[in-house]
Amino acid sequence: MKPRVAVIVLTYNGIADTLACLQSLAQMVYPGACYDVVVVDNASTDGTPAQVRAAFPNTIVIENKANLGFAAGNNVGLRYAQTHGYDYALLLNNDTEVAPDLLDRLVEAAETDQRIAAVGPIIYYHAAPNRIWSAGGSIDWQRGICRMRGEEEDCGQYPARIVDFVTGCAMLIRVAALPRIGLLDERFFMYFEETEWCVRASRAGYVCYFTPAAKVWHKIPLNARFDREYLAYYMTRNRLLFLRATKAGWRTWIDALIVQDLRTYLSLCLRPKWRTRKGRIGMRLAWIDFWRGRFGPAPVLEG
């Protein structure tokens, strides 16, 4: 009998992507008796729960009464996995599609070492199926920068290995590790929460692992940039929250605040070719909210 897995698909509208994701999950070769798909809906307005139940009647649907964000929404699914005796929980974005052997490869990697708290697959762009979006992540603690490896064609250059973090877009979590590590930090709302969780896992004696044998395709634009106001807000505020939560040193704070954030903000304000780019208002509000201790969902911002 293989380990039991709860595949947690968090949704907030985007029903077409969700149905395509669930269709790909229905093609998995992992024994059907050993996994369940759990759709956690963050109060969608496009009829997601009803359409999911109609198209995939065996899917478990949990309806939240509000948009809880990525962290709190996935925590609903993780608590479900804990209380219903699953061995693993796979966090999976609704705008992804998976290889048929995804669960086999992820679980196979996790079962090699009880110290593995999370396993991440190789993630490609859906629009460019051999171009890597994520092949595991690393943290530059000197500068406080978190980077995912990728943005190149897959030539087999990324071996299976221990990594600093894996993206929450597709992340297999060992349920037995949750009491020691904890759930996702809901202050983040979205972005950086899985990275902070992976750091907590490492400091609790676990490791995070990447395996290219497991494959996922993500429907993120090829030219995606974090230059919209709300994205600038979350990426700025939450990186500072990440540094605080992980107790980064003062040199890291100086680099993050002055060398990186302040330079970026001044460039957006002063350089003629960047004046039309969005992000200034989001960055400014992010700094204010961070220092005032305001976390959770962002204020209403353009974009």
UniProtKB/TrEMBL annotation:
InterPro entries membership: Glyco_trans_2-like (IPR001173), Nucleotide-diphossugar_trans (IPR029044)
Specify the Glycosyltransferase 2-like domain's residue ranges.
Answer: 7-179
Q: What is this protein called?
A: Glycosyl transferase family 2
In terms of SUPFAM superfamilies, this protein maps to: Nucleotide-diphospho-sugar transferases
Q: Which family does it belong to?
A: Belongs to the glycosyltransferase 2 family.
Q: Which GO terms describe its molecular function?
A: hexosyltransferase activity
Which Gene3D superfamilies does UniProt cross-reference here? Spore Coat Polysaccharide Biosynthesis Protein SpsA, Chain A (3.90.550.10)
User: What CDD domains does the database record attribute to this sequence?
Assistant: GT_2_like_c
Keywords carried by this UniProt record: Glycosyltransferase, Transferase
Which pathway?
Cell wall biogenesis; cell wall polysaccharide biosynthesis
Q: Which GO terms describe its biological process?
A: polysaccharide biosynthetic process
